[in-house]
Amino acid sequence: MDYVDQRVAQLASAVHTSTTALFTPLNAVILSALLYAAYAFLLRASPHPITLPREQPAVVFTTFTPRTLLPYNGENNMPVYLAVRGRVFNVTPGRNFYGPGGPYANFAGRDASRGLACSSFDEDMLTKDLDGPLDTLSDLGPAELDTLRGWEERFEDKYLVVGRLVAAGEEREEDWKGIGN
Ligand code: HEM
């Protein structure tokens, strides 16, 4: 072995000794601690802190008036409810129909009974006085009531009832007799 080979062998041996010397258990512990500290620091300094999605309001049986039903129109991340003959349906799964910009958004957060019965999107179909009496639908004919019944059946199959609609001032708990009353 000439001189150069000897030096290379010496160097390789030195590198090997020093690298194996680095991998001691103590160094492993120190390295883990350093990595953890760096990770914790980066997480804290992250420009995108972890935020949880805004919680949806819980779905509970409750009593609505035309006014308290109004915010449930799918805007501001709210669920979409509509009322048919005193029952409030959670139509959020049909957000494409009733949500903002949807073809039936006029019914969102409203008593949709008359509009559905008369197949009309007219503003006149919706309760104007939110603090007044509910629409009794007493002037509707059998054909319109039949149409409405059809919609109700569809909604019963498809959506959950989350409450009932009463006129303002009639929200007393003891009035609640259950679904369909
Ligand atoms: C030109 C007339 C109309 C056409 C072409 C039409 C078309 C449609 C279509 C294709 C759907 C989706 C059905 C599905 O995938 O389940 C739908 C749903 C619906 N339509 Fe119409 N529609 C019309 C008129 C009306 C009118 C006049 C009303 C009531 C005022 C109405 C109320 C609804 C409602 C409430 C839904 C959603 C039902 C659900 O939540 O599943 N539509 N319509």
Structural notes for this entry:
The chain is of the alpha+beta class and 181 residues long. It is built from 6 helices and 4 strands, in the order ααβαββαααβ. The protein has helices at 3-22, 25-44, 66-69, 95-98, 113-117, 142-158, and strands at residues 62-64, 81-84, 87-90, 160-165. It has a 4-stranded mixed sheet. The longest helix has 20 residues, at 3-22. The protein is rod-shaped and about 115 Å long. It binds protoporphyrin IX containing FE (HEM). Protoporphyrin IX containing FE is lined by residues 91, 94, 97, 104, 115-116, 119-121, 154, 158. Residues 91, 94, 97, 104, 115-116, 119-121, 154, 158 line the site of protoporphyrin IX containing FE. InterPro entries: Cyt_B5-like_heme/steroid-bd, Cyt_B5-like_heme/steroid_sf, MAPR/NEUFC/NENF-like. It is found in: Endoplasmic reticulum. Residues 64-166 form the Cytochrome b5 heme-binding domain.
